[in-house]
Amino acid sequence: MSGKLTRFLGDTPGRTIVKLIVISFIVGAVMNAFNWYPVDVIFAVRDFLVNVWNLGFAALGRFGDYLLLGAAIVIPAFIILRILSYRN
Length: 88
Fold this sequence. Notes:
The protein is mainly α. It has helices at 2-9, 13-33, 38-86.
């Protein structure tokens, strides 16, 4: 069991706990220096995802606009070319 746990953690449980404590202290000090709180990070991630979502649909809207503009030329040209080639 200990071997599986050590392999999962990447090191012994004691050393992993010490590493996590040190990294948690450093991250906490940096967040305190910038006056950040965990809820701010969560809101920032949420706002980022909402903005990406909205931009994605805006891109789809632009794609549809381009498609309709192109189709206004391509479809009549296709029909005319098919009618002209039908004669042959």
